[in-house]
Amino acid sequence: xxxxxxxxxxxxxxxxxxxxxxxxxxxxxxxxxxxxxxxxxxxxxxxxxxxxxxxxxxxxxxxxxxxxxxxxxxxxxxxxxxxxxxxxxxxxxxxxxxxxxxxxxxxxxxxxxxxxxxxxxxxxxxxxxxxxxxxxxxxxxxxxxxxxxxxxxxxxxxxxxxxxxxxxxxxxxxxxxxxxxxxxxxxxxxxxxxxxxxxxxxxxxxxxxxxxxxxxxxxxxxxxxxxxxxxxxxxxxxxxxxxxxxxxxxxxxxxxxxxxxxxxxxxxxxxxxxxxxxxxxxxxxxxxxxxxxxxxxxxxxxxxxxxxxxxxxx
Length: 314
Known about the structure:
By secondary structure, the chain is of the alpha/beta class. Helices cover 43% and strands 18% of the residues. The protein has helices at 14-25, 39-53, 90-111, 124-135, 148-162, 195-200, 210-228, 233-247, 292-310; strands spanning 6-10, 31-35, 61-64, 75-78, 116-119, 142-144, 169-170, 189-190, 193-194, 252-261, 267-278, 281-285.
């Protein structure tokens, strides 16, 4: 356990509760504060988690609280906001959740100016952008989980077909965490061997095509929702991993959502590129050597997000 580490989770819905649970089980913090407008729900989740951790090697203090109780947090995780409803546009979802964020971020940021802010709320790129614009917190301290979840889903699927550990599959998803996410195929590999060459030499694997794999990434969350009503386990695991990388100064390179400052000609928009993540938050944004077609797809994804933010008057 990281002694003295305080992590606050804003939002006690299924995602927020799963995030708090995963952090507690992994002993990433000595104290977890859960905040939600539905106070009894937050109290119930905190009590349920705390009672379970009492049998672990390190018991975590998990409590429900108000925004004031998040003061001096080391990490603050945003999971609050409504889920996208059938037929609802991304702009409408963004407007609703941005309004929620606008109402809470000033007071939270003033209480923990040195915290790292991990953004899970959707649309994650838009919410990350909003918090960067409104909080006064340095950009490197604000980390959108972005395409890390898409990347995990892609590696899981390829691992299943290829019959090798996902740790040996080096593939990433860049751009928007959403409909315009893209895969830079020229950079993909399996244990150092170019992905396409690896698959071509092994036709018995019956690997789906590029288009099919990208479509599966785009629809992965929807398939889980159709089967069980919501997604929360996978996102809670990747969120805890982001926290672990911060707390252990891992210098891990992950596809995270952050502000673009000229990367591939994009400005004033948040989306995912490989970022070096450590104790200071996002320490560097890498600009991978994608080919012209991939760059065009990435820029298209960025411009799609800029069209949404333009309609929000942030």
